[in-house]
Amino acid sequence: MVCLSAKALLLAAGCLPQLVHSAGLDTSAVALGKLYFGTATDNPELTDTAYVTQLNNTDDFGQITPGNSQKWDATEPSQNTFTFTNGDVIADLAEANGQKLRCHNLVWYNQLPSWVSSGTWTNATLLAAMKNHITNVVTHYKGQCYAWDVVNEGLADDGTYRDNIFYQYIGEAYIPIAFATAAAADPDVKLYYNDYNIEYAGAKSTAAQNIVKLIKSYGAKIDGVGLQGHFIVGSTPSQSSQASNMAAFAALGVEVAITELDIRMTLPSTDALLAQQKTDYAGTVAACAQTSACVGVTIWDWTDKYSWVPSTFSGQGAACPWDENLVKKPAYTGILTALGGTATSTSTASGSSTTTSTSTSTGSSSVAQQYGQCGGSGWTGATTCVSGTTCTYFNDWYSQCL
Ligand SMILES: *[C@@H]1O[C@H](CO)[C@@H](O)[C@H](O)[C@H]1NC(C)=O
Ligand SMILES: *[C@@H]1O[C@H](CO)[C@@H](O)[C@H](O)[C@H]1NC(C)=O
């Protein structure tokens, strides 16, 4: 890995400008036909200038997602009193940068204000409060969001409905009613169901597929399913299992996206763990790359400096593609390569090595790297795979070196 010997601030100053005109994660994803590669962010981090400089780097991030500031406790802290100040900061940043915005989220059991979670409800009164929340928030952000996560984490791990307050008073009908309410407030925004442990076949993924069918059975609209992707180094589901699971959703007529990708490890991080993390990131991103219904990938913040992992999973961390000093880890190259870009080493005037990246879609490279694209309709890049890998056909638009 390059740029590890200098101090963090010098790295940020010395390395990042090298990348400004290079193919990055988003430009490579778009060259593959995806809509975006993006990252979550959050309001407190926006005071960190070095952090925002890279967040603003649209070669890497064509989309951002507010981590917290559009959630129910942030937007409607007391009943029918709405505050959009923090959410607007991130929506406005996306707009100023020309980045897409994934809006997150409308109905979730967690981060509810106490007037909801501890309220006295009937089916009818909770339904009215839920509809009022959705209508106001979706209307406020109308035209600014690519997609809304309408219902988040509505399932327990065994595939039964999560026994949240909405389910208790309204029953499963809260899910299709939430989608219908969001569609009425903004007919153009993509409406997603978003959850974790639905990235591979199993009871929970099957249950999420049943949610798609349930929503449609009510005559309501669902456009997509968000596969969160909070994974663990060394036990990340395989590329093929993720791709076949995506295909199962696509067969129901919805798009998919990887919405919250991070791959944590037990600390301290080692070279071996970082190498495995690179493989795990590459396989996951490659599953989206090979699946035409997968529109994009969002990492759940790009730097370990602001990852939610250490405070949530004791003893674990280092889950993001950039380290806590905002330096790229091997995972970055794994993602870039899975998106058909290649990383090459060059020397700077000072003699220290840095990383620049080019996209094989320019046709400038004669050998495609592992996980790189090697064929497909319209493909003008390399069709020969690096030694040890084979060009594998997925569909008429995409073949990949595996
Ligand atoms: C980030 O982008 C925003 C909007 O384009 C701009 O106002 C801000 O100055 C940028 N910040 C940095 C640190 O580049
Ligand atoms: C709550 O009301 C809605 C709307 O009338 C209905 O669809 C749903 O079945 C009701 N839930 C229960 C548990 O009665």
Task: Provide structural commentary.
With 402 residues, this protein is of the alpha/beta class. Helices cover 35% and strands 22% of the residues. The chain has helices spanning 8-19, 25-31, 49-55, 72-75, 85-97, 114-117, 123-140, 165-170, 174-185, 203-217, 239-250, 271-289, 309-312, 330-338; strands spanning 36-41, 63-66, 100-107, 147-152, 190-195, 224-227, 230-232, 255-266, 294-299, 316-317, 341-347, 353-359, 367-368, 373-375, 384-385, 391-395, 398-401. The longest helix is centred in the last third of the chain and has 19 residues, at 271-289. The model is unreliable at 1-21 and 345-365 (pLDDT under 50). The structure holds 2-acetamido-2-deoxy-beta-D-glucopyranose (2 copies). One 2-acetamido-2-deoxy-beta-D-glucopyranose binds at residues 49, 52-53, 56, 93, 96-97.
What does the main sheet amount to? 8 strands, parallel, barrel
The tally of beta strands, per DSSP, is 17
Tally of contiguous helical segments: 14
Low-confidence stretches: 1-21, 345-365
Bound ions, cofactors and other small molecules, one mention each: 2-acetamido-2-deoxy-beta-D-glucopyranose
Signal peptide: 1-22
Domain GH10: 26-338
Region (Disordered): 343-365
Subcellular location: Secreted
